[in-house]
Amino acid sequence: MKKPNITFEEMLELVKDHEDPVRWYTYWLLAETWRNNEHFRVFMPDSPLPVPDEWTAEDVPPYERIRNRLKVILGLDPVIYPEPKSGTVELVIGFIEVHYNITFIDTEPIPRFEVKTKEIGEVKIECE
Prior knowledge:
The protein is about 30% helix and about 25% strand. With about 130 residues, it is α+β, with helices and mostly antiparallel strands. The protein has one domain: Beta-Lactamase, CATH 3.30.450.90. A 4-stranded antiparallel beta sheet has the order 1-4-3-2, with helices on one face. Strand 2 and strand 3 form a beta hairpin.
Protein backbone atom coordinates (compact mmCIF):
# COMPACT_ATOMS: atom_id res chain seq x y z
CA MET A 1 0.00 0.00 0.00
CA LYS A 2 1.41 3.40 -0.97
CA LYS A 3 2.05 5.97 1.74
CA PRO A 4 1.81 9.68 0.91
CA ASN A 5 5.06 11.62 1.02
CA ILE A 6 3.36 14.86 2.02
CA THR A 7 1.07 15.80 4.86
CA PHE A 8 -2.67 15.77 4.43
CA GLU A 9 -2.82 19.56 4.81
CA GLU A 10 -0.20 20.00 2.06
CA MET A 11 -2.19 17.65 -0.15
CA LEU A 12 -5.35 19.71 0.35
CA GLU A 13 -3.46 22.87 -0.61
CA LEU A 14 -2.12 21.21 -3.78
CA VAL A 15 -5.56 19.96 -4.74
CA LYS A 16 -7.07 23.39 -4.02
CA ASP A 17 -4.45 24.94 -6.32
CA HIS A 18 -5.69 22.69 -9.12
CA GLU A 19 -9.24 23.98 -8.61
CA ASP A 20 -10.81 20.53 -8.52
CA PRO A 21 -13.54 20.80 -5.88
CA VAL A 22 -14.47 17.11 -6.11
CA ARG A 23 -10.94 15.95 -5.26
CA TRP A 24 -10.55 18.57 -2.54
CA TYR A 25 -13.91 17.79 -0.98
CA THR A 26 -13.34 14.02 -1.06
CA TYR A 27 -10.07 14.30 0.87
CA TRP A 28 -11.65 16.85 3.21
CA LEU A 29 -14.54 14.44 3.87
CA LEU A 30 -12.13 11.66 4.84
CA ALA A 31 -10.22 13.97 7.17
CA GLU A 32 -13.41 15.34 8.68
CA THR A 33 -14.66 11.83 9.43
CA TRP A 34 -11.47 11.16 11.40
CA ARG A 35 -11.37 14.60 13.05
CA ASN A 36 -14.94 14.12 14.33
CA ASN A 37 -13.84 10.81 15.85
CA GLU A 38 -16.33 8.92 13.69
CA HIS A 39 -15.06 5.36 13.49
CA PHE A 40 -17.99 4.35 11.30
CA ARG A 41 -20.13 6.57 9.09
CA VAL A 42 -22.63 5.83 6.35
CA PHE A 43 -23.19 8.17 3.40
CA MET A 44 -26.34 7.84 1.29
CA PRO A 45 -27.48 9.69 -1.85
CA ASP A 46 -30.53 11.23 -0.17
CA SER A 47 -28.69 12.42 2.96
CA PRO A 48 -26.94 15.78 2.93
CA LEU A 49 -23.16 15.66 2.92
CA PRO A 50 -21.23 17.78 5.45
CA VAL A 51 -20.44 21.34 4.40
CA PRO A 52 -16.90 22.70 4.92
CA ASP A 53 -16.40 26.12 6.48
CA GLU A 54 -16.66 28.92 3.92
CA TRP A 55 -18.74 26.69 1.60
CA THR A 56 -22.48 26.56 1.08
CA ALA A 57 -24.54 23.40 0.59
CA GLU A 58 -24.68 24.25 -3.13
CA ASP A 59 -20.86 24.10 -3.31
CA VAL A 60 -20.75 20.48 -2.14
CA PRO A 61 -20.29 18.11 -5.09
CA PRO A 62 -23.03 15.54 -5.76
CA TYR A 63 -22.94 12.24 -3.87
CA GLU A 64 -22.24 10.25 -7.05
CA ARG A 65 -19.12 12.26 -7.85
CA ILE A 66 -17.78 11.83 -4.32
CA ARG A 67 -18.51 8.09 -4.40
CA ASN A 68 -16.71 7.74 -7.74
CA ARG A 69 -13.70 9.80 -6.59
CA LEU A 70 -13.39 7.56 -3.51
CA LYS A 71 -13.43 4.49 -5.76
CA VAL A 72 -10.59 5.97 -7.82
CA ILE A 73 -8.59 6.80 -4.67
CA LEU A 74 -8.99 3.16 -3.59
CA GLY A 75 -7.88 1.87 -7.00
CA LEU A 76 -11.36 0.66 -7.99
CA ASP A 77 -13.15 1.38 -11.24
CA PRO A 78 -15.81 4.07 -10.76
CA VAL A 79 -18.67 1.81 -11.86
CA ILE A 80 -21.78 0.43 -10.18
CA TYR A 81 -20.91 -2.94 -8.65
CA PRO A 82 -23.60 -5.66 -8.33
CA GLU A 83 -22.05 -6.88 -5.05
CA PRO A 84 -20.55 -4.84 -2.17
CA LYS A 85 -16.98 -3.79 -2.97
CA SER A 86 -14.39 -2.61 -0.42
CA GLY A 87 -11.03 -0.94 -0.51
CA THR A 88 -8.55 0.59 1.91
CA VAL A 89 -6.28 3.59 2.00
CA GLU A 90 -3.99 5.07 4.61
CA LEU A 91 -3.48 8.82 4.89
CA VAL A 92 -1.23 10.87 7.12
CA ILE A 93 -3.21 13.72 8.71
CA GLY A 94 -0.84 16.01 10.57
CA PHE A 95 1.52 13.41 12.01
CA ILE A 96 -1.18 10.77 12.54
CA GLU A 97 -1.55 7.81 10.21
CA VAL A 98 -5.21 6.95 9.64
CA HIS A 99 -6.47 3.75 8.02
CA TYR A 100 -9.73 3.95 6.06
CA ASN A 101 -11.79 0.94 5.02
CA ILE A 102 -14.54 1.99 2.62
CA THR A 103 -17.32 -0.30 1.42
CA PHE A 104 -19.56 0.56 -1.52
CA ILE A 105 -23.03 -0.96 -1.58
CA ASP A 106 -24.30 0.24 -4.95
CA THR A 107 -27.31 -1.96 -5.76
CA GLU A 108 -29.17 -2.43 -2.48
CA PRO A 109 -32.57 -0.72 -2.10
CA ILE A 110 -30.66 2.07 -0.33
CA PRO A 111 -27.28 2.53 -2.07
CA ARG A 112 -24.54 3.86 0.18
CA PHE A 113 -20.89 3.85 1.07
CA GLU A 114 -19.59 3.12 4.53
CA VAL A 115 -16.40 4.62 5.93
CA LYS A 116 -14.56 2.97 8.81
CA THR A 117 -11.57 4.75 10.31
CA LYS A 118 -8.82 3.51 12.55
CA GLU A 119 -5.93 5.55 13.87
CA ILE A 120 -2.70 3.66 13.32
CA GLY A 121 -0.47 5.98 15.33
CA GLU A 122 1.98 8.81 15.06
CA VAL A 123 4.33 9.00 12.13
CA LYS A 124 7.92 9.26 13.27
CA ILE A 125 10.12 11.59 11.28
CA GLU A 126 13.86 11.21 11.53
CA CYS A 127 16.01 14.31 11.10
CA GLU A 128 19.67 14.11 10.24
